[in-house]
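User: Can you help me understand a structure? I only have the sequence.
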Amino acid sequence: EQGRVRLKSRLVALGNQELGQYSKADTASPTTSPGMFMSMVLHALAHDLPVFTCDIGQAFLRAKVPKGENIYVRIKDRVYRLRKMLYGLSRSPLAWHNFFTRVLEDFGMRTSPWEPC
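Assistant: Let's start by predicting it. Here is the structure, written out as tokens:
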């Protein structure tokens, strides 16, 4: 193993070359407002709760392509149908948000009526 060089790569789609028109509702992923974020942090501090942050590696790659939808990519002279989203696709942020929301709901969490995320 010594002396070996490990190389990594990530496939990224060119979203600017996507075919089809998507509305903002199809592509936008909700984010929390600064006021709601501060409220959550203040609530945690008032109740002596721990606060953690994390970066989820390869987040978009964990979201599956929505059922009933087909997304194809062309690499050189071959065409592939995606099963999971890629970085660069306009729909990836929303697909990731929907996937992560379902994971949190499986843990018993629920969405705030005041914030969509």
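Now, to help you interpret it: The first strand starts at residue 72 and ends at 75. The beta strands are 72-75, 78-81. Let me know which part you'd like to focus on.
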